[in-house]
Amino acid sequence: MSASAIEAAPVSKTFDDDDAQARFDADRRYLAWRRRLLPVIATVGILIVWEASVHIFGIRPFIAPAPSAVAVMFVQKFPLLMANLGPTAIEAISGFLIGNIAAVLIATSFVYQRTVEEAFFPVAVMVHTIPVMAYAPILVLLLGNGMAAKVAIAAMICFFPTLVNMTRGLRNVNPQHMELMRILSASPTEIFFKLRFKNSLPYLFSALKIAAATSVIGAIVGEWIGSTTGIGALIIQATYNFDSPLLYATIVVGSCFSALFFGIISWAERLSLKWNVAETA
Amino acid sequence: MMEVAVMERTDQKPAANAAAVELSRVTVRFTTDRGSVTALENIDLTVPNGGFLTLLGPSGCGKSTLLRVVSDLIQPTSGSVKVLGGDAAAARARREIGFVFQDAALLPWRTAIENVSLPLEVGGRNARPGRRTPKELLELVGLAGWENALPHELSGGMRQRVSIARALVNDPKLLLMDEPFGALDEITRDRLNEELLSVWQETDTTILFVTHSIYEAAFLGQQVLLLAARPGRVRETVEVPLPSPRHIEQRESVQFIELAAHLRRVLETC
């Protein structure tokens, strides 16, 4: 018993020798910092090369602004940028929720009714092959120029990856787990909530992480087509005015929001999937 | 189907010394795209109450299918199945059958104790608790202190112990084990074999144990049922003459070695 106990014990205390333990901890800290610092160093390096190139080759700001000019613009126009982030964030998050909830519900119906899947999955594939630039104007025509159209575009862009992943997750249940549930005379509801749904969570989170980024893209694309506020509208305005520093600053705001959204989903995943070694290791 | 109805009437009061499992002329045929496959053919088998029967045979001999017939997961094509004096479905519904799967089959999102408690949470009114609490059962299988560990934090042997505890939580009268220690290293397997025997003695459960290890079959069983493959059929039933309680050292006795040699000779012709 003791041998396997050691094997499975958490690695907080690995060595009996204090010195060895200290060296081990130091090494681990070093590796952790290295992992965090390397991307930062790379980013700073790229920015320096970029800044230097703009000055050395005398590139005009409207063709490619220096990072410093973008930073100045970011600070100056911060209230404007935030005012435009608001609607985009609302559209992206609403679209994310609606698209994913719809996908989960439809995936559930697929798993319980093969006929529904056979009938509607090809339709979903066909819709998915339409480029977002093609259906975005259609949705604006259908839903008007307000937020609804943007929410719908964001929802549609989230929908497909979640539908495919969730269907797989609900269906790919270990056959022995199914047999166990049958031996225990579990009801269909119990099998769904205690087995299928839990089993699908890693698949669902993979899809949600994709959706976190794409829902923002969906909202921005929606704003390109006739909108006066939002990150997408600001991108169009800045482009038409040759205001490249503002364009870049807007892009940075949009990306940061996407990254933050992605980060929140990843954090939620880590919290709820502690049991899933493949994801957390 | 008529037979089932008759059996249900008698299942309320099984005879005092009725056999725990009685199969007579059980045949299971699966129909696949490429025709039908006979997994089991005319199996006759009796396990006395409180007995320990091991099923030994090459792969493809239908050992696992046989356990699934006894636990009502598969319906036999023909023949009669009597489990604990009634039909298998009724015994399963009364939670009198515990099943231990090949690879533990723990739900990975549940801690050890939550896995052991699963049978108490599902299945509505069948989910009555047994004499021992999940915590006590984890102690019984040597996992005190590991209640809140997740399956991926446990070794293969520990996971299989959890699954044995789970199978015992409703006080089953019959424990079906499908190559439970097949994936474990030999040292762990030996230790779990001894522990399983002591659990068996402590809980007076009837055990049907499937294995493809000759030593495991001979060491654990009071009887070894040898199955031949394609189609799965009974080759021979061998009484194990070893005294109880058994210890791993008994495997070095002449008696045991002769028994193992005999089983091997029969297996070669299966």
Summarize the topology.
The complex is a heterodimer of chains A (281) and B (270).
Chain A: H1 2-8, H2 18-56, H3 67-76, H4 78-112, H5 114-129, H6 132-143, H7 147-171, H8 175-183, H9 188-224, H10 231-240, H11 244-272, H12 277-280
Helix pairs in contact in A: 3-11, 4-5, 4-7, 4-9, 4-10, 4-11, 6-7, 7-9, 9-10, 9-11, 10-11
Chain B: H1 2-10, E1 19-32, E2 35-48, E3 52-56, H2 63-70, E4 78-83, H3 88-93, E5 97-100, H4 112-121, H5 134-140, H6 156-168, E6 174-178, H7 186-203, E7 206-211, H8 214-220, E8 223-228, E9 233-239, H9 254-268
Parallel strand pairs in B: 3-7, 3-8, 5-6, 6-7
Antiparallel strand pairs in B: 1-2, 1-4, 8-9
Helix pairs in contact in B: 4-5, 4-6, 5-6, 8-9
Task: Give a short summary of the structure.
The complex is a heterodimer of chains A (281) and B (270). Chain A has 281 residues and is mainly α.
